[in-house]
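Data availability (excerpt). The following record was deposited with the supplementary files.
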Amino acid sequence: MPSVTHDDAPLLADLMPWSVAPPRLGRGWPTAPDSASLKARWDAFVKAEGPDREALFGVTRARTLHSAVAQLPGQSSGTGRLARASGPCAEPVRVLHGPFDEQWLIPDHRLIDAARPELWRVADERQVFAVEQATGSGTAPEGPALLVTPVLPVVAPQSKTVPAARPGRVHPLYRRPDGGEPNLAPGLTAHLAERLGHSPAPLDVLAWAVAVARPGAGGCAVPLTADPELWAHGTELGHRMLWLMRRDGERPKLPGGRRPYVRAPLPSRPLELRYDRDEETLHVDEGRISPVPPTAWDFEVGGVRVLDQWFTARTAQPEPGTLEVIRPTAWPQTWTSELLEVVTVLALLAELRPQQTELTVETPITAGELRKAGVLPVPDAARRPASVLDHHEEGPEGQFALL
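Predicted structure:
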């Protein structure tokens, strides 16, 4: 991570002051790597009656079949009690299920223990979510302290047998829909403009943060610089990382000889993932993908190898009698394409680490300087969600709620 000459680096929690804990699902069956399985699970759920439906649902303290909750902002799920639910489910949406692992979710508030509606209200094609990450203590290279995603990150129930990286606080880049009102400390960009000679765009500030963020005792620290050349170099690097993490637009590719290919077909139901470091080959049972750089295989987030977590999310044996047993009967081709893309993204991000290390901040803008300039501490209102409701939202049992 970047080296600094001053320990008084501001925290991301102060630079992007509005943050929310990620949505906590409370049950695993409303998420899946494919949307067809979710629709089939919902159909099985609503066909069950009485105690069978309750057992399939997975009752928690936050949700039962009789919980009364409002509709998720921007979604079209029902609001009647789940005990009486029928018909098709709401159209599944993409979410970040784990680091670099986009899956599908039934966006139904009744199925989610803690949905964080304030995040759903600002989730659109302009939004970018910065997610703080825990750091591992192993010997493998640490992953980024800050991940970025265009879709909502969620916390699925922890598996008893499979370790998983747990996301930290979620910092939306914008406090309002359509890219309105940047989630930046009031006065921050004006102070940066004074020190750098130009006013950076909100996405530039996030790009810099992604490039230089490092774990700290009080949270994710973001060293700032007053050096215009270093800022330009860091933001250029950060925009490259943003593009790789967001994976929007053109697909990332490694140069031709280093591009991973399927050398032997993957089996219909793979169970084991292993890596041959000498041959740079990823073995999926008898299937083979190569070349896979060691840096992609070693890539960790939160102390967990990304490729292991991604693969296990698609192959772990579900508990018998649960809705999770409804899943593809064979490994879909789309998953192979997604695996190749994840390998590519991890390899390209790992290649940027030396450039991150070279970002030495020798003329820092410290937290003390921001306090002296009146940027810190941020006002309490900046840490709360903006009032963005400009239409009726459906409440429990079809009634409309106004916030």
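Summary of structural features: The two ends are 43 Å apart (CA to CA).
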